[in-house]
Design brief:
single chain, mainly alpha, two-stranded antiparallel sheet, 2 strands, about 70% helix, about 0% strand, elongated, ARM-like, ARM repeat superfamily protein, ARM-type_fold
Amino acid sequence: LGFIWATVVLLGGFAITLDKTDFWFITIILLIEGTRIFSRSHELEWQHQATWSITDAGINSFRAIRSSSHFIIKAVKAIFQPIDDAVRKQSRHSREITESKHLTSRRKWDRRKIPTRTWTSSDVPLLPYAQWVFLSRNISKLLYWLQLASATACVVLSLMKLIKHNYGEVAKGDTDKRNRRSALNIFYALALAEAALFLLEKAYWEWKVIYCKLLDEVNKECELGPSGRISIRRFFYDAYSRCVNGSIFDGLKMDMVSFAMDLLASNSPDEQLIGVHILRKFAVNERYSEDTLQKIGITLWVMERLVEMLNWKDPQEEEVRESAAEILSKLASKKQNSLRVAGIPGVMESISSLLNNKRSSGGAADEICGKNIVCDHENYGFWTFNHLGLLILKKLARDHDNCGRIGNNRGLLPKIIDFTHAGERLLKDETVSQSQILTVKRSLQVVKMLASTTGTTGKQLRREISEVVFTISNIRDILRHGEKHPMLQKLGIEILTSLALEEDATERIGGTGGVLKELFNIFFKQGMPENQNHVRIAAGEALAMLAMESKSNCHRILKLKVTEKLVSALADRLLRINSARIVRNLCTYSGADCFTQLRGVTTAAPTVLKAIMSEENKLQEVMVGLAAQVFKFMTSQESSIMFERAGIQEAELARALVQTLQKHQYPPIKIPRMRRFVIELAIWMMRDKETNIQIFKDLGMEKELECVSDTTSELESFDIFSGSVGMSRHSTTIHSLVETAMKLLDDK
């Protein structure tokens, strides 16, 4: 407004009548104001320059000599060009020099410890021999003080004229004296008001930003840590610049996450580091994590950029790579984001690049350090990347489709299994690093999740896992030496249980020396704390699975001479369910040639009968199934003796069986084999003694069998399940069992 008033009203309307002093005062004030406006707009650009780079420790700033001559030529040319163009060229060239320094530092990488990035304000030299003068930070300060000086000068000059009112003598015949004085008063008042408002703004700025430490408060609230002040300062000047140069709404629309995402797209390594550092801090912060991950998750190019960063193997980019991996690990924890991450082309290859086992890391380390860079392998964070890589895979593996993608990636599965290796020293040494134990644990968790996958994908994964020659032997070592790490033992056992769903894998497990023996050692181990009983239960489940439909494994178990212990365990409330399952499978699948070795199981009959009469649900189901097999090893007289020892009459057992069928008129989901086992035991009883046929008739067995025939389903046709998919179909259908029982009832 003051500029328009001066040029249009004063210089345009009163140019001839203006006093020489007023003319030069107006001109000087306009020049001062123009200088201040220019300084203010370009101060922001140089403030950007001051926060543009995060300097690397040990970088030699004089490495920019080769490009300095080009800059001098440009600077000389800029003298004859508008000041605005010159400043912009200086800013652009300073960035080129910084990139040159960055490349030079890579060539100078030595054998000593890798220097870490130091978060400081940037000092970007524009000339190698005039560093202090041309530092971007000092230039911004110069422009800042130039603004203050120009505003102060404007206030002084305006006050001088407003106080003295010496606007010159009026020429003869000048009738516009009053208008000229008023116009000059208005101009000087406008100049004074504008300059005073500017000084007031600067005073408020100093009080708020410097004295009250606004940026530090924001950094503290965002919890970005000591290194975050540079990021906050850069964000602040970006937002302020948009408000000044554009609309205030441009600045208000900015947020830290969007700001950081924009920096990821930069070609500057330092800006990339600032961006990924901000996203990492926000992603792990409970207050901001959900919104941050949601925003990243719906921005495909950001996720692709983060995945790309996983492949950056230059040691100088270690921090960027680690931050990107941590962000992706948080991103993968949400199912929807997990699917998006897994859908990015090449993501599995990128995650695989994070995994490098130190036992065979020679080639991997060379790959990371590069052929032209000499680096100390010991200082590179291999184990950190291993943890993050396995953590990402663990979270991705929660989804069925992602498990298939992991299995389809060539070479990834053997890498994961390689981390399950834990020797005796690692497992028994109390001083061993917990990070190494954590690596083994995470790798076992990933393998477990892959092995327990359902459907065709799970079948393929179990086959591939069991075909890796180290899988079973690594788990055996954990079972043998992992007494101090029960969680690792349980994970290993659960992997074996899942693999046992496949016939080939079952044979491989049983054929690996010591696996069955170690499982029984854990299963029968006494004196374990109560909080570790889950390991014994898991061992029993694995043994039951390995004995199912595997004649060779049954023979291997019998050679271990554990039959008596299994019979004794039927009385142990913790072990009896799995003991009953193991004994039943031994009786069912060992074959006729093992009859003599299994004769000892007949001593379990009284315990089994009592459990059938007194228990319910799962325990009753397995005991009924075991009874149907155990009594096959007895004569009629021997079975009568067992009933007497148990204090139970056969009629009482028959009534309990009929009542069980009445209770479960439809196949129960939790105990799908109950009706099958009841009918099997009833058939044995009717074949054992003809008197039992009449007992069942009197109890209404025929009616219950007809109900079973009308309500049977595929659920009762399988012994085990993988999700909702049936595995290990029974050789005899339930319809066939019903027909056999009905025929026995009709023959009487």
